[in-house]
């Protein structure tokens, strides 16, 4: 509110700055209202919605650290065209804009203290962090972005190396499997040949024993026959001897 005391009622004048801002805002909104919903994307879960949109929330294009409001393309227009709003700091759309404000000084956290590794506002930089290494938040962001890019490249390189290692291991396993199959086939062939050789030897051994047994039986039969013949002759002689006496 204005604290100036007037003796007489002052003549009221239109605030040209506010009037101009409202007029441009309305004109811009009217021109784009019909096409905004079709040309711009509706905010999806996980995306930052426009805080000004009523009804269907469109996807926010930028967030203002001064207004603490996120704007879609249509509602962002005044910040791009009006001199009073052009000085506002715009960033990529983020949620929880209140968390981007310094709780101590109620100022935007637009600086970064490298010494304490924390975001600070302009007053913090000249009071609590006066002797610290303080840089613009965007500068720190770009620096971190480059570092993260290098880290991401290194990580991707490490991933690629490990994927190549996996391929090498799989190839080694395939070769090992081929070697194992070949060794099994060779082993089966060797043991099959050995088994056949043993079976042949066993059969020859059995046949030899059987032949020996047959020979022994024939010899025994011949010997028994000879003995039986001798017995017959002896019995005949014995009978003749008894008749003489």
TrEMBL record:
Residues 210-244 form a coiled coil. It holds the Pfam family zf-B_box. SMART domains: BBOX. Residues 97-137 form the B box-type domain. Keywords: Coiled coil, Metal-binding, Zinc, Zinc-finger. GO terms for molecular function: zinc ion binding. CDD domains: Bbox2_TRIM16-like (cd19769). This is B box-type domain-containing protein. It comes from Perca flavescens.
């Amino acid at each position: 509110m204005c604290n100036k005391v007037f003796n007489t009622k002052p003549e009221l004048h239109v605030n040209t700055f506010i009037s101009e801002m409202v007029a441009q805002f309305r004109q811009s909104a009217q021109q784009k209202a019909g096409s905004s919903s079709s040309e711009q994307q509706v905010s999806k879960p996980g995306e930052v919605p426009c805080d000004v949109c009523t009804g269907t929330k469109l996807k926010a294009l930028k967030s203002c650290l001064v207004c603490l409001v996120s704007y879609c393309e249509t509602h962002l227009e005044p910040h791009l065209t009006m001199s009073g709003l052009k000085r506002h700091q715009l960033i990529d759309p983020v949620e929880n804009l209140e968390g981007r404000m310094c709780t101590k000084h109620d100022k935007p956290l637009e600086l970064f203290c490298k010494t304490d590794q924390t975001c600070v506002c302009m007053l913090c930089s000249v009071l609590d962090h006066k002797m610290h290494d303080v840089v613009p938040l965007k500068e720190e962001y770009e620096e971190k972005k480059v570092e993260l890019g290098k880290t991401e490249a290194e990580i991707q390189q490490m991933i690629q190396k490990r994927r190549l290692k996996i391929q090498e291991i799989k190839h080694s396993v395939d070769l090992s499997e081929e070697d194992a199959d070949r060794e099994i086939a060779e082993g089966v062939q060797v043991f099959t040949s050995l088994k056949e050789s043993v079976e042949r030897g066993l059969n020859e051994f059995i046949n030899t024993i059987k032949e020996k047994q047959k020979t022994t039986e024939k010899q025994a039969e011949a010997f028994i026959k000879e003995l039986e013949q001798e017995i017959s002759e002896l019995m005949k002689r014995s009978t003749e001897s008894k008749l003489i006496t």
